[in-house]
Amino acid sequence: VVTLSVLMYPVLRSLALQLHSAVTGSYISGTHSIAFINCLNEQIAKDIARAIMDKKLAAYVNILPKSSALYFWKGEMEESTEILLIVKTRTSKIGELSNYVRSIHPFEIPEIISLPIDQGNPLYLKWIEESVPQD
């Protein structure tokens, strides 16, 4: 019984949080995420952003202008300019988003980093939820 309780705790907790959210209308921390993806240039950034949106893997993608980057690649320090995508989506879509971007991104190892959204405008978070289909 104890082992079963320990194994079932994450599932039961998740269900309880979803029920609480449905009843109270409150946001469950971490339900949505922001992903950061760097691109070589503006055209690649727009193409990737459009592809992400076409697949409904995000509700919103910001394309930020050029930024300078310093990094180590194959033992050498490199310097470049990059375009940053900021992607708003469901946390449950991050794996699919990452796999898809890796399949279309020209970089050998594209930067795809995500952070869960802890809090925010409830109406905006609800809009993300409505815009990105459930798994």
Provide an overview of this structure.
The chain is an alpha+beta fold and 135 residues long. It folds into two domains: 1-28, no CATH class; 31-131, 2-Layer Sandwich (Alpha-Beta Plaits). It is 42% helix and 31% strand. A four-stranded antiparallel beta sheet has the order 2-3-1-4. A hairpin with a 2-residue loop joins strand 2 (60-73) and strand 3 (76-90). The mean pLDDT is 90.
Straight-line distance between termini? 31 Å
What composes the largest sheet? Answer: 4 strands, antiparallel
**Shape, per Cα inertia axes:** elongated
**Beta-strand proportion:** 25-35%
Compute the number of strand runs.
Answer: 4
User: Order of strands in the sheet with the most strands?
Assistant: 2-3-1-4
Q: Judging by the overall fold, what is the CATH architecture of the largest domain?
A: 2-Layer Sandwich
Contiguous low-pLDDT stretches (5 residues minimum) are none
Give the domain tally. Answer: 2
Give a quick precis of the structure.
GO terms for molecular function: copper ion binding. Belongs to the CutA family. The chain is α+β, with helices and mostly antiparallel strands and 135 residues long.
Present the secondary structure layout:
Elements: H1 2-24, E1 32-39, H2 42-54, E2 60-73, E3 76-90, H3 94-104, E4 112-116, H4 122-131
Antiparallel strand pairs: 1-3, 1-4, 2-3
Please name the defining characteristics of this protein.
135 residues, 2 domains, Alpha-Beta Plaits, alpha+beta, elongated, single chain, four-stranded antiparallel β-sheet
